[in-house]
Amino acid sequence: MKPNELNEEFETVLLPAMALRGVTVFPNMSLHFEVERDISMRALEEAMEQGKRIFLVTQRNIAKSEVENGDLYEVGTISVIKQVLRLPGDNARVLAEGVARGRLLDLTQLSLYIQTEVQLLEEEKAPFHENVRTEAMLRSAIDLFQQYAEVSGKITPDVVLGVMAAEDLGWLADFVAQSIPLRYEDKQRVLEELNPERRLELVNEILAHEIQVLKIDQEVQAKVRERVNDSQKDYYLREQMKIIQEELGDGSGDDEIQEYADKIEKAKLPEAVAEKLKKELGRMTKQPFGSAEAGVLRNYLDICLEIPWTTKTKERVNLDQARRLLDADHYGMEKVKERILEFLAVKKMAPDLKGQIICLVGPPGVGKTSIAASVAKALNRKMARVSLGGVRDEAEIRGHRKTYIGAMPGRIINAIVSAGSSNPLLLLDEVDKMSSDQRGDPSAALLEVLDAEQNSTFRDHFIEMPFDLSDVLFITTCNSLDTVSRPLLDRMEVIEVSSYTDEEKLQIARRHLLPKEMKRHGLTGSQLRMTDGAIRELISGYTRESGVRQLERELAALCRKAAMKIVSQEAKRVTVNGDQLEAMLGIRKYHPEKLESMPQVGVVNGLAWTSVGGEILEVEVAVMDGSGKVMPTGNLGDVMKESCQAAISYIRSNASVLGVKPDFHEKQDIHIHFPEGAVPKDGPSAGIAITTAIVSALTQTPVRRSVAMTGEVTIRGRVLPIGGLREKTMAAFRNGIHTVFIPEDNVKDLEEIDPTVRSGLHFVPVSHVNEVLAQALMGTEPVSEHHTEHNGTDANLIPPVQEETHIHSRISQ
Fold first, then answer.
1. Does 279 participate in catalysis according to the annotation?
2. Residue 505 is a catalytic residue
3. Predicted TM-score of the model (pTM)
């Protein structure tokens, strides 16, 4: 089939085609458009040579310059070229008239120009006044078009008259779609609809939508013009006021700008800071009234002027006064106080020394925060607390850029502003509770803050100027070092604040907590009295903690009970002893471990360290006929299981000496159990207790009931030092133990033990497990029951850092 030759059987024709971008041509309509692409120019030339007929079809993606299969809509318009006007740059302006709709069947050529096989599409005829529905649709279309013309204001009267004179539904739908600016997708929908009624109905829907959009657009434009007019009116009025004030001699008319300038001059800022603020003030003067940028600059200037760039408090270092303050605010904690006083002594000898950053680590409620407050008071420095618990955004430390809505400085600069001094004591609380996410790692941002080599030029994102933090004294607190990043920990000097003993809690309650709660509840010393026995019972029976927070709450409850009795006139004075606690506070919450009344075979009292103090840890061993299995149970960690294996290995290698059958490991099963199986336990310090219990069970020799022991054992029987001796011995004393076996290397640590505990227990230093067995098992040489004081030990020796037996928590399942 030749180009322009009609295939009468299928009503198809080969025509050059032009891909239109954003333009749609309708039948019986004329349209001007410009041709720029080479392939379209060649199609135009081909059409002019072969009868001026061309197939105009809209391109799906108007951004594509190259046409491929699938890029064109299926329905286009067979048109006749009426006029071609050549333009500069090998372009042309074309006037084309649509003849009929056509369906694109195939792209037969895409090289020189687009040639298509097109099928002629016939549409149904719907004469005017055929039925009422047709007339109603026609009138609706005319009415909607008139509304559109009124709202848009861009339709010429000739077009309106053409619409009103229309009698053919299909022609009217095409004419309206051609005459108004619609998206090419909507025009294509109209072109593809062959039924005149449905086509006009589609056009009516489009017109209704366009009218609604135009009305909303006009409302928006009206509001914008109104606001612009108000802003211009305000601007003109203010300018007139400035001129009037200048004429009257009432000043420059911009008091706010002058006020900021005066503040910058009076603040005695560093030169670089003053220049920066003056520059920002100059930018603010150029902003129109009410602009958002002016608000940002105003907020920036306010915050920068609040920062104490050069304001400092005079530091006072008086060791005697500092010692008095620490003793008045904190009972016990001698090693911590000594380290704090050493720090203050160095400050007195070398005031310019930088980079001393202290980290207080210890369980909750032991006074870490109050120690920092005492140090600030002793140094005459202002103090600000920065809580870092739960912080997960790096911007919390360094701040946000001032261009963001609601931007503010980071917590460090805010704390400086709050303190009102450039050399305060900043307490960074709970540094172990920080976390990180997609917004950054705050602990990494703290590296600059806590580095003496870098923090002299600390730059907050909001301030955008370096601030000197080298004069700031940083004290950090945490409950555990496990979650503190290593680089951050490397910048701090760690001081361990251990848990309180029962004796220390007694003195703290007597000297600090009880007077404080009585004052809070309006009680005098004559109205409420508590015996030492009542306080001891309160500590052991109603609290289980490292610090004293729960103890303080229980004392507050007693004060409330006493106040109730006094106000209700049940009593004029309330005296509380140990027997009355249950009546006032309810049943006892915690009970001490009960020792066996008679010596037991295979049962040994071990000692364990927990986060809330020390506890008795029983070791039970049962031996039965079997095949040599060893079964450690009780929710044990790997280290504790290895201690069991080490004890078995020592006993096997020394079976003849210990009086144990040499083949026990082949014919007997050994079950080693640690009660309270729901509580996780780990650590090596139960080694000698495990060994003693196994030997007792294998030899059927009872273990003395009033002894307890702690120490790591090796497979050769050596007893190695352990940690947590202070808390463990307190647990032994509290539970009625008389004799405690400790590693010989831990004798030096007895100096740190509470004097009451040291005088109430008999300590037996051992270097080998045979020494323990010789004295702990019945039928051997008994342990002397007299109490021994260990004097002459060096209290300044640092105890060896060893992993000890832990009971992580007390949870009943």
1. no
2. no
3. 0.56
